[in-house]
Amino acid sequence: MQRPLDNQHIIDIKPLPSPRTIKSKLPITDQAAALVVETRDAIRHILHGQDRERLLVIVGPCSIHDPEAAYEYADRLKPVADALRDRLLIVMRTYFEKPRTTVGWKGLINDPHLDGTCDIATGMELARTILLNINKRGVPCAAEALDPVSPQYIVGTRALKNRRAASSIACASGTMYPCTMASPGFGRKIPMLAAAGGRKCSGPGRTSYRMIGILQIHNCK
Hints:
Layout: H1 19-25, H2 30-47, E1 55-59, H3 67-83, E2 88-93, H4 120-136, E3 141-144, H5 151-154, E4 160-164, H6 169-173, E5 179-182, H7 190-195, E6 201-206, E7 212-217
Parallel strand pairs: 1-2, 2-3, 3-4, 4-5
Antiparallel strand pairs: 6-7
Helix pairs in contact: 3-4
């Protein structure tokens, strides 16, 4: 008798709603969409040296765990960003995922109830809701994506994202918004330089309809 080869350590499998389902449930407003597009373009101009009058500043808490606290932060940040807009482009840091080398809370998307239940479906909805509400306040957002799944749920609400350089070239190349790369812990420049070009590539990915497919990605800028 052949021994089982798959899922020997899997206790349970719970389906996630498709990204399209959550986007339809939580649509972005025209005003918020315009803010996201304008901020993406402004970030590109700064990073490419076309806007030499301003610096890009990403400011905010280490991670988001409380929606009301996030909204209060955004409300306080907005007048400061407006006052300094001629010198700085200020984007709010809204991180919902935590890279962990040891045990610990993995972020709002993975564990929105802070109790270890890993209600990721609720976490995806809550993260998108928070981003939409911050966008409505006129504050653009930056977030970190740790896998190729979560961006499909909250894409369109973010102006910028951060990724780990060594494993993120393909994911970054496929995004519609500017990406920054976090340098590795050992401090070498090689992964950063390799990721900087935004390569043309192909790889597995997830669509808005929940399907897994091979995504062909063109060069990004």
